[in-house]
Amino acid sequence: MSAADEFLTPFPGIWNDFSGCLDCFFCSCCFAGRQINAIADEPDSVYWPTCCLAAFLVTMPCISLYIRRKVVAKYQLNEGSCVTNCGSFCLFPISMCQTMRELDLRDANPGGTCCVSTASIC
Fold first, then answer.
1. Residue 110 within any structural domain of the chain
2. Which positions, given as ranges, span the membrane (predicted)?
């Protein structure tokens, strides 16, 4: 993997995974917890402290930023800090959908919550 890798799914492409988007919008707490575990190479499980913290919706932009930065670092994605920060704070549900899809496409297997029953979304 080169240092110039990009996200495999651009922002508009996340809508191709409708059930994943539903998970993000209706089960965002567990959705965030699953991404934290997938980044830590613990597939298809929920990190409950993040899930509980995300229940306070005011923390979701911060959690989204943390997840996005971890995904960018893990896969050495070529994304500037301005895009990472703005995307995470201003468009956090879309950013969360994109990072979840990225983890799945790169075989990190974050799993599903309410609307996705399997890890494969391709």
1. no
2. 46-67
